[in-house]
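Minutes, project huddle
Topic: does the predicted pose make sense with zinc ion bound?
PN asked that the exact inputs be recorded in the minutes so nobody has to dig through chat later. Recorded below.
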Amino acid sequence: MVWMRDHFNVIDFEMFKRLFEGGLVLQDERPAVLLTFDDGLASNYDVAAPILEEAGMRGLFFVVPRFSASAGDEGRRFYLEHIRNRWPALNPMTPEQIRDLAARGHTIGNHTMSHARLSEIPEAEYESEIVESAAVIESWIGHPVEAFAWPLLWNAITPEAHRVACRRHPYCFTPCSGRMDLQTDLPCLIWRTSIEASYDAAEFRFKCSSLADAVSAGRRRHLVRMLLDHELPRRTWSERAVFPRGWSMLQSLKRNVSPTVARQ
Ligand SMILES: [Zn+2]
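Predicted holo structure (C-alpha coordinates), as shared on screen:
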Protein backbone atom coordinates (compact mmCIF):
# COMPACT_ATOMS: atom_id res chain seq x y z
CA MET A 1 0.00 0.00 0.00
CA VAL A 2 2.91 2.34 0.68
CA TRP A 3 4.24 1.68 -2.85
CA MET A 4 0.72 2.16 -4.22
CA ARG A 5 0.29 5.44 -2.37
CA ASP A 6 3.68 6.70 -3.61
CA HIS A 7 2.94 5.98 -7.27
CA PHE A 8 -0.80 6.49 -7.59
CA ASN A 9 -3.47 8.88 -6.42
CA VAL A 10 -5.72 6.42 -4.58
CA ILE A 11 -9.27 7.73 -4.69
CA ASP A 12 -12.48 6.45 -3.12
CA PHE A 13 -15.77 5.74 -4.87
CA GLU A 14 -17.23 9.18 -4.07
CA MET A 15 -14.28 10.86 -5.83
CA PHE A 16 -14.58 8.36 -8.70
CA LYS A 17 -18.24 9.35 -9.17
CA ARG A 18 -17.41 13.06 -9.09
CA LEU A 19 -14.73 12.51 -11.74
CA PHE A 20 -17.34 10.95 -14.00
CA GLU A 21 -19.91 13.60 -13.28
CA GLY A 22 -17.38 16.34 -14.06
CA GLY A 23 -17.46 17.89 -10.60
CA LEU A 24 -13.89 17.01 -9.72
CA VAL A 25 -10.61 17.83 -11.42
CA LEU A 26 -7.58 16.13 -9.94
CA GLN A 27 -4.49 18.30 -9.60
CA ASP A 28 -2.36 15.26 -8.83
CA GLU A 29 -0.17 14.19 -11.78
CA ARG A 30 -0.14 10.55 -10.70
CA PRO A 31 -2.69 8.15 -12.24
CA ALA A 32 -5.85 7.85 -10.15
CA VAL A 33 -6.72 4.40 -8.83
CA LEU A 34 -9.86 3.07 -7.17
CA LEU A 35 -9.25 -0.14 -5.17
CA THR A 36 -12.00 -2.77 -5.41
CA PHE A 37 -12.36 -6.17 -3.73
CA ASP A 38 -14.60 -8.98 -4.94
CA ASP A 39 -16.63 -11.74 -3.27
CA GLY A 40 -17.04 -10.36 0.28
CA LEU A 41 -14.41 -12.54 1.94
CA ALA A 42 -13.85 -12.40 5.69
CA SER A 43 -10.25 -11.35 4.98
CA ASN A 44 -11.60 -8.19 3.32
CA TYR A 45 -12.84 -7.17 6.74
CA ASP A 46 -10.06 -8.62 8.90
CA VAL A 47 -7.03 -7.77 6.74
CA ALA A 48 -7.70 -5.49 3.76
CA ALA A 49 -9.90 -2.82 5.35
CA PRO A 50 -7.58 -2.14 8.35
CA ILE A 51 -4.56 -1.83 5.99
CA LEU A 52 -6.47 0.59 3.76
CA GLU A 53 -7.62 2.65 6.72
CA GLU A 54 -4.13 2.84 8.17
CA ALA A 55 -3.03 4.37 4.86
CA GLY A 56 -5.99 6.77 4.90
CA MET A 57 -7.72 4.97 2.02
CA ARG A 58 -11.19 3.58 1.46
CA GLY A 59 -12.15 0.70 -0.87
CA LEU A 60 -15.11 -0.59 -2.85
CA PHE A 61 -16.18 -4.08 -1.73
CA PHE A 62 -18.39 -6.17 -4.03
CA VAL A 63 -20.32 -8.67 -1.90
CA VAL A 64 -22.48 -11.74 -2.52
CA PRO A 65 -25.56 -11.78 -0.20
CA ARG A 66 -26.14 -15.53 -0.27
CA PHE A 67 -22.47 -16.14 0.61
CA SER A 68 -22.53 -13.60 3.43
CA ALA A 69 -25.77 -15.03 4.79
CA SER A 70 -24.13 -18.44 5.21
CA ALA A 71 -21.70 -19.36 7.96
CA GLY A 72 -19.26 -22.07 9.00
CA ASP A 73 -19.25 -25.21 6.84
CA GLU A 74 -22.16 -23.86 4.80
CA GLY A 75 -20.16 -20.75 3.91
CA ARG A 76 -17.06 -22.71 2.95
CA ARG A 77 -19.18 -25.10 0.86
CA PHE A 78 -20.75 -22.09 -0.90
CA TYR A 79 -17.26 -20.71 -1.61
CA LEU A 80 -16.13 -23.97 -3.25
CA GLU A 81 -19.33 -24.44 -5.26
CA HIS A 82 -19.95 -20.87 -6.42
CA ILE A 83 -16.86 -18.72 -6.06
CA ARG A 84 -13.65 -20.65 -6.52
CA ASN A 85 -13.18 -24.39 -6.49
CA ARG A 86 -9.82 -24.18 -4.78
CA TRP A 87 -8.60 -24.99 -1.28
CA PRO A 88 -8.47 -23.59 1.26
CA ALA A 89 -12.14 -22.68 1.21
CA LEU A 90 -12.58 -19.14 2.52
CA ASN A 91 -15.18 -17.65 4.87
CA PRO A 92 -17.49 -14.74 4.03
CA MET A 93 -17.89 -11.38 5.70
CA THR A 94 -21.07 -11.34 7.76
CA PRO A 95 -23.87 -8.82 7.07
CA GLU A 96 -22.86 -7.05 10.32
CA GLN A 97 -19.27 -6.70 9.11
CA ILE A 98 -20.50 -5.37 5.75
CA ARG A 99 -22.64 -2.80 7.57
CA ASP A 100 -19.64 -1.83 9.70
CA LEU A 101 -17.41 -1.38 6.61
CA ALA A 102 -20.00 0.95 5.10
CA ALA A 103 -20.21 2.91 8.36
CA ARG A 104 -16.40 3.32 8.30
CA GLY A 105 -16.54 5.04 4.90
CA HIS A 106 -16.01 2.12 2.52
CA THR A 107 -18.40 1.52 -0.37
CA ILE A 108 -20.37 -1.71 -0.76
CA GLY A 109 -21.24 -2.96 -4.24
CA ASN A 110 -23.39 -5.76 -5.63
CA HIS A 111 -21.68 -8.90 -7.00
CA THR A 112 -24.96 -10.82 -7.63
CA MET A 113 -27.01 -12.78 -5.10
CA SER A 114 -25.10 -16.05 -5.53
CA HIS A 115 -21.99 -15.23 -7.61
CA ALA A 116 -23.96 -16.27 -10.69
CA ARG A 117 -22.51 -16.84 -14.13
CA LEU A 118 -24.95 -14.44 -15.78
CA SER A 119 -24.17 -15.68 -19.28
CA GLU A 120 -25.48 -19.15 -18.40
CA ILE A 121 -28.50 -18.72 -16.12
CA PRO A 122 -32.07 -18.22 -17.46
CA GLU A 123 -33.12 -14.59 -17.99
CA ALA A 124 -35.91 -15.17 -15.45
CA GLU A 125 -33.22 -15.28 -12.73
CA TYR A 126 -31.72 -11.87 -13.55
CA GLU A 127 -34.23 -10.17 -11.28
CA SER A 128 -33.25 -12.15 -8.17
CA GLU A 129 -29.53 -12.29 -8.96
CA ILE A 130 -29.16 -8.58 -9.77
CA VAL A 131 -32.11 -6.53 -8.52
CA GLU A 132 -33.08 -8.41 -5.35
CA SER A 133 -29.41 -8.80 -4.46
CA ALA A 134 -29.04 -5.01 -4.45
CA ALA A 135 -32.12 -4.72 -2.22
CA VAL A 136 -30.70 -7.20 0.31
CA ILE A 137 -27.40 -5.29 0.48
CA GLU A 138 -29.29 -2.00 0.89
CA SER A 139 -31.25 -3.50 3.80
CA TRP A 140 -27.89 -4.29 5.44
CA ILE A 141 -26.12 -0.95 4.89
CA GLY A 142 -29.10 1.43 4.96
CA HIS A 143 -28.41 3.35 1.77
CA PRO A 144 -28.55 2.76 -2.02
CA VAL A 145 -26.12 0.40 -3.75
CA GLU A 146 -24.73 2.24 -6.78
CA ALA A 147 -22.07 -0.14 -8.07
CA PHE A 148 -22.42 -3.57 -9.66
CA ALA A 149 -19.71 -6.01 -10.78
CA TRP A 150 -20.52 -9.17 -12.66
CA PRO A 151 -18.60 -12.23 -11.44
CA LEU A 152 -16.21 -14.68 -13.10
CA LEU A 153 -15.08 -14.28 -16.70
CA TRP A 154 -14.75 -11.04 -18.64
CA ASN A 155 -17.50 -12.18 -21.04
CA ALA A 156 -19.79 -13.96 -18.52
CA ILE A 157 -22.55 -11.44 -19.26
CA THR A 158 -25.38 -11.00 -21.74
CA PRO A 159 -26.79 -7.73 -23.16
CA GLU A 160 -30.05 -8.27 -21.23
CA ALA A 161 -28.26 -8.97 -17.92
CA HIS A 162 -26.17 -5.85 -18.48
CA ARG A 163 -29.32 -3.80 -19.16
CA VAL A 164 -30.92 -5.05 -15.92
CA ALA A 165 -27.74 -4.25 -13.96
CA CYS A 166 -27.45 -0.76 -15.47
CA ARG A 167 -31.10 0.04 -14.80
CA ARG A 168 -30.53 -0.70 -11.12
CA HIS A 169 -26.95 0.63 -10.68
CA PRO A 170 -25.40 3.77 -12.25
CA TYR A 171 -21.93 2.16 -12.25
CA CYS A 172 -21.19 -1.28 -13.72
CA PHE A 173 -17.70 -2.75 -13.23
CA THR A 174 -16.29 -5.43 -15.53
CA PRO A 175 -13.74 -8.19 -14.88
CA CYS A 176 -11.89 -6.97 -18.00
CA SER A 177 -8.63 -5.10 -17.51
CA GLY A 178 -7.91 -1.66 -18.85
CA ARG A 179 -7.34 1.96 -17.97
CA MET A 180 -10.42 4.19 -17.83
CA ASP A 181 -10.60 7.21 -20.08
CA LEU A 182 -13.14 9.71 -18.80
CA GLN A 183 -13.43 11.31 -22.26
CA THR A 184 -14.64 8.16 -23.98
CA ASP A 185 -15.44 5.42 -21.48
CA LEU A 186 -18.83 5.11 -19.82
CA PRO A 187 -19.89 4.42 -16.21
CA CYS A 188 -21.89 1.41 -17.37
CA LEU A 189 -18.68 -0.35 -18.49
CA ILE A 190 -15.78 0.21 -16.13
CA TRP A 191 -12.53 -1.67 -16.80
CA ARG A 192 -10.69 -3.24 -13.89
CA THR A 193 -7.27 -4.80 -13.58
CA SER A 194 -7.28 -8.02 -11.56
CA ILE A 195 -4.65 -8.46 -8.86
CA GLU A 196 -4.40 -11.82 -7.07
CA ALA A 197 -3.25 -12.11 -3.46
CA SER A 198 -0.69 -14.69 -4.62
CA TYR A 199 1.23 -12.17 -6.80
CA ASP A 200 4.74 -11.29 -5.73
CA ALA A 201 5.92 -7.67 -5.68
CA ALA A 202 7.21 -7.76 -9.28
CA GLU A 203 3.95 -9.18 -10.68
CA PHE A 204 1.95 -6.68 -8.65
CA ARG A 205 3.95 -3.72 -9.98
CA PHE A 206 3.76 -5.05 -13.54
CA LYS A 207 -0.04 -5.31 -13.37
CA CYS A 208 -0.21 -1.80 -11.87
CA SER A 209 1.89 -0.43 -14.74
CA SER A 210 -0.92 -1.19 -17.25
CA LEU A 211 1.64 -2.61 -19.68
CA ALA A 212 -0.45 -5.79 -19.92
CA ASP A 213 -3.69 -3.90 -20.61
CA ALA A 214 -3.03 -3.76 -24.36
CA VAL A 215 -3.57 -7.54 -24.42
CA SER A 216 -7.18 -6.94 -23.35
CA ALA A 217 -7.92 -4.33 -26.03
CA GLY A 218 -9.80 -6.91 -28.12
CA ARG A 219 -11.89 -7.96 -25.13
CA ARG A 220 -12.82 -4.36 -24.37
CA ARG A 221 -13.85 -3.77 -28.00
CA HIS A 222 -15.90 -6.98 -27.92
CA LEU A 223 -17.75 -5.90 -24.75
CA VAL A 224 -18.44 -2.42 -26.11
CA ARG A 225 -19.87 -3.92 -29.30
CA MET A 226 -21.87 -6.60 -27.49
CA LEU A 227 -23.27 -4.42 -24.69
CA LEU A 228 -23.33 -0.83 -25.94
CA ASP A 229 -23.40 -0.79 -29.71
CA HIS A 230 -27.20 -0.77 -29.83
CA GLU A 231 -27.22 2.28 -27.54
CA LEU A 232 -24.70 4.34 -29.51
CA PRO A 233 -25.70 5.91 -32.82
CA ARG A 234 -23.38 4.76 -35.62
CA ARG A 235 -21.85 8.21 -36.00
CA THR A 236 -21.12 8.48 -32.29
CA TRP A 237 -19.72 4.97 -32.24
CA SER A 238 -17.21 5.61 -34.99
CA GLU A 239 -16.27 9.16 -34.08
CA ARG A 240 -16.35 9.11 -30.34
CA ALA A 241 -15.65 5.57 -29.25
CA VAL A 242 -13.38 3.64 -31.58
CA PHE A 243 -10.54 5.90 -32.64
CA PRO A 244 -10.25 8.10 -29.54
CA ARG A 245 -10.42 5.02 -27.31
CA GLY A 246 -7.33 3.42 -28.87
CA TRP A 247 -5.58 6.75 -29.21
CA SER A 248 -6.22 7.87 -25.65
CA MET A 249 -5.10 4.50 -24.32
CA LEU A 250 -1.76 4.92 -26.08
CA GLN A 251 -1.49 8.47 -24.83
CA SER A 252 -2.21 7.46 -21.24
CA LEU A 253 0.28 4.61 -21.52
CA LYS A 254 2.96 7.07 -22.61
CA ARG A 255 1.97 9.63 -20.03
CA ASN A 256 1.41 7.46 -17.01
CA VAL A 257 3.31 4.23 -17.28
CA SER A 258 6.83 5.50 -17.82
CA PRO A 259 7.18 7.36 -14.54
CA THR A 260 5.72 4.40 -12.67
CA VAL A 261 8.17 1.97 -14.22
CA ALA A 262 11.10 4.34 -13.99
CA ARG A 263 10.71 4.78 -10.27
CA GLN A 264 10.58 1.08 -9.41
ZN1 LIG B 1 -16.24 -12.86 -7.83
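Observations noted during the meeting:
- Residues 2-262 form a domain with the TIM Barrel fold (CATH 3.20.20.370).
- The chain has one domain: 2-262.
No decisions taken; revisit at the next huddle.
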